[in-house]
Design brief:
345 residues; alpha/beta; Trna Endonuclease, Chain: A, domain 1; six-stranded mixed beta sheet; 15 helices; 54% helix
Length: 345
Amino acid sequence: MIDTGTYKKALGKLRGLLTSCQKDDAAYLKMVEARDVVLGQFQKTFSEENLPALTEEEFHSFLTDNQHWSGLYRQLPKLCSDMPKLRKALKLMLYGDGPIENRLDKSVKMVDGMGKAIATAVLLIVFPDEFGVWNNTTEEGLMAVELWPDFDRGESFGSKYLKVNGVLQSLSKDLGVDLWELDSLLWRVKVKARGVEEETLDAEELEELEQKFGLEKYLHEFLRDNWKNTDLGKDWEIYSEPGEDEKGYKYNCEVGEIDILAKHRKKPEWLVIELKRWQSGDDTVGQVLRYMGWVMEHMAEPGEKVKGLVIAHEADKKLKYALVPVPEVDFKLYDVKFNLKEGDE
């Protein structure tokens, strides 16, 4: 339960940001203005009349052309590997009998890849006044303003969504925006919460920062997309839950975002993986330990161990020394090679 004082404080921050975004934020306004076109197109796609004949091309179009949510397309091969099952799951979720939380729990278990981001995006498309979106951006945005609800250990995906949607519904009403625009606002909250004050950097520092961001993003996505082929993937699997496919990738918790959260395939162990960014070695170690502590308190069962792993592009003496007294945190280097060869080889 979120207390009234915290909610009012968050509401004030969001109102201020909303005014700024509606005034001169081009990226924000572009997303908001796309609403009617996107809803008009894809409400037909997911209509009860069209679902029995839903094609892979139509679903692919939604994942890639929704003008609002990026990255949904990554699950396309899994989602469309069995189109009859996908149609059945969508029909149950959207038009089935019983409470929405029960329909969500059943439908996401039916289709591999049907995580919270895709399932709730479809819900918003079909019922834009009833259901908001729950994805990593939502989590990070709500956590940034301290409005993320508490979940009970073992609580089902559908039950968790009811709590998240309750917060979204309250914010939508009190801010005077629809759930589509609220989703855009939370995206801007996330961006600002992560933001580096780039105006304080000179040209050389900014270029270096951009290169680091690009390399880190490449590594992060490479680990996710090629996990099973990496050395880590042999013993560890990225944490997931029903309705939350790849939950452990960019795992949001109340103390920040874990780059990758994994569980051992055989042993009762968790692994917190953090990519070293521009921060100091001391900050990186502190971050990993903070996340490990949170996992111990909120995720690990009695008897389960929690380990850490820092992955960096170059050796940092401060980082290496900081890890000496922390044997449960390992350290690995990564190397990216790029070679050009003659076209006729």
